[in-house]
Design goal:
- The complex is a heterotetramer, with 2 copies of chain A (636 residues) and 2 copies of chain B (315 residues).
- Chain A has 636 residues and is an alpha/beta fold.
- Chain A has 20 helices and 22 strands.
- Chain A folds into 4 domains: 225 residues, Pyruvate-ferredoxin Oxidoreductase, domain 3; 185 residues, Thiamin diphosphate (ThDP)-binding fold, Pyr/PP domains (Rossmann fold); 70 residues, no CATH class; 115 residues, Rossmann fold, CATH 3.40.50.920.
- About 2% of the residues of chain A have low confidence.
- Chain B has 11 helices and 9 strands.
- A 9-stranded mixed β-sheet of chain B has the order 2-1-3-4-6-5-9-7-8, sandwiched between helices.
- Chain B is globular and about 75 Å long.
- The N terminus of chain B is likely disordered.
- Classes of the chains: A alpha/beta (636), B alpha/beta (315).
- Chains A and C meet through helix 11, helix 12, helix 13, helix 16 and helix 19 of A and helix 11, helix 12, helix 13, helix 16 and helix 19 of C.
- Bound molecules: thiamine diphosphate (2 copies), iron/sulfur cluster (2 copies) and magnesium ion (MG) (2 copies).
- The site of one magnesium ion (MG) has 9 residues of chain D, from helix 3.
């Protein structure tokens, strides 16, 4: 092991000897690592394979994609980094975890990019192909040295791996083989079941000639052999054999399958990262369900088609992200005014504007709540796990139809590209949308026959005899007749607001995680749940009186939040969106820009809610949050 | 889709519909507005085709013209400015049993709605599209529209409109999959009716530009045309739109084969006369609603197919 | 005078006799009336003429348009109502006032529409053409009777006027003459200077043959004569001769002139009510300033052109309303991210969706603040008077350029179509935008050279030698180079937020109207200022300890609001936007939907701010607000 | 406008620019991407025209193609998806001294940007528009674009794309005021360069569709064309685009008079070959930037004119 792997100081070749870390075999309840390569070198396949292999063995697992911003950027540049982070655990793993403890990097530039985004633990073990340090092109060597210099501030533990050299012994194109060698190395380190790994490889290449599978098996074994020979440590994460059947997928796939289970018939969309992959999944399978992915000319056309289909009685959704969400605002206003059911999935990404298209952020909450001119009460929900992404689709459809409203589902890149196993759902026929009501309309009833108490009404669907009327985005009365009078405008506004409030009454009060009272209550929403609860658990293990409250409903808010908050000394909303550093120059209590949930809770409930919000473009790390909790615990 | 679910009952519909059965509340356009004539003709058309009111849907955007659905006793969707086509596409795509009509103004369709228009034509969904072209923004009080004649004085271009107008038919004919493209005028109801009937027979998107009088803002533009019938050139062909009355009424008649795309495009450059009739028709282009219809599945079948999906994702 | 002017019960002809109200001559400090007719009958000309005549005499005046929803709807229907409300005062008039005390109606249907929108005071004097009550068409008579029945719940005082009969004695087409007869009647009642009125008429018809002016003068005199003969009352509102030169215009014209004075060069727009008339005004005159009104293909194109022009160094604005605002969200995000100055005028209208296109509402505040995905700090200002509409344009341009940000100006139909005199501004050359900086760029400087303390930086404008760079909506560093790292994303976010906070520090604390402390503080924003302050004055005259605070800056908030609030027992935000009635079923403190300013103040300042918000589609009446104040004053 | 204000100094610019002077940071497209070739040719073009870097502006939307401005050392505006044209129009309208180029992808221009495209062509602003058409959504990873061939498998239409593709040139030629419409290919840099030069000479909006290789997603589509030069049909005319090398290199050549709009439209229906060259040119159409240029006024003049306005509104 070298602590200063500078190519110019010593020949790298010598480093390919038995590495002495002195770590030996260690057992962990969970452990995180990364595999990173240039785009096109297959680190993603390696990492995903490692994750699902671990899941099959009965480990909890969470993998997260590392995606370059361009399609196939110049190799050996930080921006070219492609890969996967994998966290495996003895039990269920709910989030990507902290900075990783081990990384396999195909070159030093992709490694550097991980260093720069603070993804590597200070004592991270780095397995890296050292060929670059002795490359014949001096520019490469210089790049290596500069990178090592930059990374030397951390106490990383360096292990040189003959990744390309060994791979070339088996295949001709190292670009297509290094990833399997790396998988072998990981299999040794984490003591994985090699047979399962081989089966997986065979499965992946089942449509290719047998020779391909064979070569990959060989590479896997070469990796294992090299590691067994050269490494003096293993990280053991015991598996708990699963008690029930599991499925493993990412959040976008879970949304897609959830849409199938909810009987949603139309997904109208325009491509945008990170929402598109949901439509890719549906496009593959929708023919087996009579469904349609409609790729529209733009996001406005997409929501228009969804709304038209929904108006005509078919359940429809539109999916999008950041810039696409912006374009849908006008149609959302119409959907709300005309009270036509609609489900909108917004997979948030880094903003504002084009922002950080592939990165995690939770910055669209206020835009979704208030993004339409005029008053637009609606339902906004945020799944907090990949499993919830599946189940929430039925919930959303049913709410949209019952309340005749728009239901926004807020996800983000963390859920969309994270992969984790969860219990295989037991399908129920009742989840599916029924056919549109086509019975004749009662001659006395009216298209907006609001129940004055609840604001609810039953819509007429084209084809229903006697129900002929024209829906409109102008203010209208119970007959859907355009009306400009103050009383009718107040009434229609009140009815649209009331039904949301009434629906809120049916929700359960959220239950804090941790304890019912204490010193600090962290409030979160959406994809951060796993990280927040893990941080709270760690804090409690340290004796801190910390708890957390996770909100699935952002509009309406679940009842009882204030009551929970009253039992804590300090309330802190934690979100992956921007808030001013309270200690920054010029920032005061009164002018501070706070996180979006904090703003909502303060405004709606008048809770003195603190705000911790950051925009690193990465999931929330439990350890980081633990520090936040520690420093925010009120002094006794 | 299980279309049987979409019928009220198995029994055949024995109702007979009169034009007045399609009548909604009194229209509120200006006196003399061409929209009245189009509305009246539409009711006659609905009667002649015996379209079932609850199976008929008129979708519109925003504008004077967009009030159209309110004045009919069918289903109606008065949407937002420029976006009638996506709404209509969404409705028609999954509800083949509905007769879906789209009513747009010239600003609505060719300005703010231009993207949806181009792509709507390209999808070639089975819709009948009525472009009520009064060469002006009516509802917002006389602003230049893309079809306003150059130099015409409006409230946003009081020094005279700056640009040559867009020819809606020329644009439409530049779009792949255009399948039925016609031009008519509100003040020749017989021709309008014949055009709507031909469109109803056509499988695909029928694009009908209707020259429409707006006595409030552009009285001089259309008035000249109304008063000089010799400016009109009636297009005839055995596969075109024919109405005996119209053929008698108008002096200028020419043969035009609607299968000839080049000739159709050339017609849009005609300056001597205004051609009325069918510019282009192509019956062989698949319609988007049919392309995307898909098979019907029962809930049980769907559930079984989901289980297959779960198996794919099984650990 | 008849209290039950039913046509069928008695011949109306008899009513054209001297009317006995017993009121005699009365003097008022201010008085409000309306003139309403079918669209096309010229009530607007009559009312506007009456208003400007009064202004010329030295009265304070405020006129407000009554506009039908269709262009020329069927006559004799409530929806056909066109007209003007006029309030004149001894001193400056700051708002449209309360329900009117006198109305001249050309038929009973247009009157009915004013009754339905609660525009008429309970004891309103109604001058109405009674020809309809004795019309030969029995349907008309029946309509008259039904209308009278509906209006009989109020104690209106009815006076029959032979409007059409008398007009026909002078001109052939009563549609074009009744309005001048009506103006004559008003001139008598309010004792107006007939010479000024005649001059005005001559001016208005100066491009027509002399005969037209003559006929109109005759009609005016006939109206005066009839009134002198038949009415036993006059309402005298003494005039205060103006001490300085005045101009009289509506808010949209004031914006237009303000844009000229600020040197704004481009107004890119797409027609939409009630913003369009601003562009109509500019289009008329811009050639004399080298400016351009660009009517784009849609609102997206419009803001794109404005942003492109601004990027290229010319000052540009885009103007819009409700649905158009929705469409601009994506470009606003880009403008904020790329830090390109931009001025956006949003003339609010009734929402959501197409809503009430011609009506007053203040419902876009939260949409403007939060309508873009991601985090988008910006400047939002709202003029509160028509005079401010003029001056705010220079302010907005300067802020936009200095901060490199978007400045939203929130107006509404109340300001846009209200007409009032104000002091003729004394122009200053410094208000005008300078030419774009075209000096070479210092080689060491960078396109986003943020001052780390203030977040400010100086932009490079195309044409500046050495300043070549590419602006982008992706996250970027100081060089405008695309950057995906957490630190740079945090930095750029912080800088965009900081500069707004820093700007906020330069603002003065708002000063309450009324007193510095007391029982209740009304907080308002935008066009309601005149009404709110008048209500507060009335409340104080009654001995109530009420004050008001009016906010011009909604983002950043002016400093010192909390301090003011602390000196009052109760804080109540008053807005013309929707809030749930707190006493409505199912509505609780925790789920209540509050007005938008209330939400903002609670969220940002944690002020326990009550909310009073209504959406009548009409300006706020001081008397109504007075009642609200009275019922909200905390019990001792 | 006082254009003198826009000059750095009265002195003539004596700099000489080499292609490399326009070079920005290294481009980050996939190896073999046709955008590299277009970028390199653009630099040569800039050199050949000696366009002053700080007076040159490239505006783009979002997509692989939209990264173009980042890789040049001129001013650049990397905007939002589909909206490059309004930005460019705004810049050019008030800054006649700038050379403004617009770079769009096929999705960018013909799908989400379709409305701006139609109207951009109609405004006929003095811009050079490069449509980098790779028949696919590149940056978002292989979704169908309006120009994707029918049946072509993509991630959103894995059963094969449903619709016949839009022909960008056919659409453009349907729009009033189209004034310069050409087609070329990234792999024939000489032709591309000649086309850009011709566009630079043209006063008005030059619309150049560039067939662009995307080895990542549509390698088969363009590869076939690259490998079969006989599929190309070079359009020649004395008023067209000529490059001696290209004329020698390609077998198929035809005369086409770019002033003939009907013939130009008919060319878009050609299936036997892919025509490269100038489809249509019309020098007589006013440009929007000139129509809207307006007079220059000093601050004093403007202030005097405002006072006249105040007089109009005086009480
Ligand atoms: C997004 C949006 N922009 C602008 C408007 C305002 N607006 C209403 S109708 C209309 C245009 C009317 O012209 P046209 O489409 O030709 O219809 P017409 O009234 O002439 O029938 C406009 C711009 C709107 N309602 N929504
Ligand atoms: C409003 C909006 N919608 C969608 C996207 C996502 N998006 C980015 S590039 C792109 C299309 C790319 O295709 P094309 O325009 O053909 O350019 P190419 O990448 O092929 O050069 C899309 C849909 C976006 N950035 N903004
Ligand atoms: S403005 Fe024109 S189009 Fe509109 S209703 Fe009146 S006449 Fe018809
Ligand atoms: S995906 Fe295609 S267009 Fe994009 S950079 Fe790669 S090769 Fe070029
Ligand atoms: Mg029109
Ligand atoms: Mg493309």
């Amino acid at each position: 092991m070298s602590t200063s792997p500078s190519a110019s100081s010593e020949g790298a070749q010598e480093e390919y000897v038995k590495v002495i870390t002195g770590l030996g075999d260690q057992t962990f309840t969970d452990h995180s690592c990364e595999v990173v390569s240039d785009a096109g070198e297959g680190a993603q396949k390696c990492g995903q394979g490692f994750g699902s292999l671990s899941a099959k063995m009965g480990n909890g697992a969470w993998t997260v994609e590392i995606i370059p911003a361009e399609i196939e950027p110049p190799p050996r540049t930080p921006g070219s980094t492609s890969g996967v982070g994998i966290r495996i655990g003895q039990n269920k793993v709910t989030n990507a975890g902290d900075s990783v403890k081990l990384v396999i990097a195909f070159n030093e530039q992709v490694l550097l990019s991980r260093h720069r985004v603070n993804s590597l633990a200070d004592d991270c073990i780095i397995l890296i192909d050292s060929k670059w340090s002795v490359h014949k092109n001096p520019k490469v060597v210089a790049e290596w040295d500069a990178a090592m210099e930059e990374m030397s501030t951390k106490g990383y533990q360096w292990i040189m791996v003959p990744l390309e050299d060994e791979t070339l012994k088996i295949v001709e194109n190292p670009k297509r083989g290094k990833n399997m060698f790396a998988l072998g190395v990981l299999c040794h380190i984490y003591d994985r079941d090699v047979e399962i790994a081989k089966d997986q490889i065979a499965m992946a290449f089942r449509k290719k000639p047998q020779a391909v599978t064979d070569a990959n098996h060989q590479l896997l074994e070469a990796g294992i052999a090299w590691a067994a020979e050269n490494l003096d440590f293993r990280f053991l994460v015991p598996a708990t054999p699963p008690t029930s059947e599991l499925v493993v997928m990412n959040g976008n796939e879970a949304f897609g399958m959830g849409a199938l289970a909810a009987g949603i018939d139309v997904c109208a969309m325009y491509p945008i990262t990170p929402a598109s992959s949901l439509s890719h999944y549906l496009a593959e399978v929708y023919d087996n369900f009579g469904g349609v992915v409609h790729q529209a000319e733009d996001e406005i056309g997409a929501i228009g088609v969804a709304l038209g289909a929904s108006y005509a009685g078919k359940t429809a959704m539109t999916i999008t992200s950041g810039p696409g969400l912006a374009l849908k605002a006008e149609f959302i206003g119409l959907a709300l005014m005309a009270e036509i059911p609609l489900v909108v999935i917004n997979v948030q990404r880094g903003g504002p504007s084009t922002g950080l298209p592939t990165k995690v952020e939770q910055s669209d909450l206020l835009c979704v709540l208030y993004g339409q001119p005029g008053d637009g009460p609606k339902v906004v929900i945020a799944p907090s796990t990949i499993e919830e992404c599946f189940h929430i689709m039925t919930t959303a459809r049913q709410i949209a139809e019952t309340l005749r409203t728009t239901v926004f589902i807020l996800s983000d890149a963390n859920l969309a590209t994270g992969v984790t196993p969860f219990e295989r759902p037991k399908l129920e026929a009742s989840w599916m949308a029924g056919p549109p009501d086509q019975t004749p309309v009662d001659p006395d009833s009216r298209p907006y026959e609001w129940d004055l108490d609840t604001g609810l009404s039953k819509r007429f669907i084209p084809g229903q005899r006697g129900g002929e009327h024209t829906v409109t985005g102008l203010n209208h009365d119970e007959n859907s007749t355009v009306n400009y009078e103050p009383q009718k405008n107040e009434l229609a506004h009140a009815m649209r607001s009331r039904k949301i409030a009434v629906f809120g009454e049916t929700l359960n009060a959220p239950i804090p995680h941790g304890g019912d009272e204490g010193d600090i209550l962290i409030i979160g929403w959406g994809s951060t749940r796993g990280s927040i609860e893990e941080a709270v658990d760690r804090a409690r293990a340290k004796g801190l009186k910390a708890s957390s409250l996770h909100l699935t409903f952002l509009s309406p808010l679940q009842p009882g939040i204030s009551a929970v908050c009253e039992r804590f000394k300090k309330i802190l909303a934690v979100e992956i969106n921007y808030s001013d550093d309270p200690d920054a120059p010029h920032i005061t209590k009164d002018n501070r820009r706070r996180g979006q949930l904090a703003m909502l809770l303060r405004g709606q409930l008048l809770i003195d809610c603190g705000s911790w919000g950051k925009v690193p473009g990465a999931p929330l790390q439990p350890e980081l949050l633990l520090k936040v909790i520690e420093s925010n615990i009120p002094k006794a | 889709m299980d279309t049987s679910l979409l019928d009220i009952s198995g029994a055949p519909d024995e109702r007979v519909f009169k034009a007045n059965d399609y009548k909604g509340p009194a229209a509120r356009w200006c006196p003399g507005c061409g929209d009245f004539s189009i509305l009246a003709t539409t009711r006659r058309f609905l009667e002649s085709e015996q379209l079932v009111p609850e199976k008929t849907l008129f979708v519109s955007g925003i504008g004077c013209s967009a009030r159209f659905p309110h004045y009919l006793k069918t289903y109606g969707f008065h949407g937002i400015h420029g976006r009638a086509l996506p709404l209509a596409l969404g409705a028609k795509m999954r509800r083949p049993d509905l007769n879906v009509f789209v009513v747009m103004g010239d600003g609505d369709c060719t300005s703010i709605g231009a993207g949806h228009w181009i792509h709507g034509v390209r999808y070639n969904t089975n819709l009948t599209v009525l472009l009520l072209d009064n060469n002006i923004y009516g509802l917002t009080k006389k602003q230049t529209s893309p079809t306003t004649p150059v130099k015409y004085v409006t409230n946003t271009q009081p020094q005279g409109s700056y640009l040559n107008p867009l020819h809606p038919i020329a644009v439409t004919l530049g779009v792949a999959n255009a399948s039925f493209v016609a031009q008519t005028a509100d003040w020749i109801p017989a021709h309008l009716l014949a055009t709507m009937k031909a469109a109803q027979k056509h499988k695909g998107l029928s694009f009908i530009r209707i020259l429409q009088r707006c006595p409030k803002w552009t009285v001089d533009i259309m008035d000249a045309k109304v008063k000089t019938p010799d400016e009109m050139m009636i297009l005839n062909h055995e596969n075109g739109i024919t109405d005996a009355k119209v053929q008698k009424m108008y002096k200028n008649q020419m043969e035009h084969d609607p299968s000839d795309l080049d000739a159709a495009r050339a017609l849009t450059d005609m300056t001597s006369h205004i051609p009325l009739g069918l510019f282009y028709k192509n019956e062989d282009i698949p319609t988007y609603d049919e392309l995307r219809r898909g098979k019907d599945f029962t809930t049980e079948e769907k559930m079984a197919n989901i289980e297959i999906e779960f198996d794919r994702f099984a650990v």
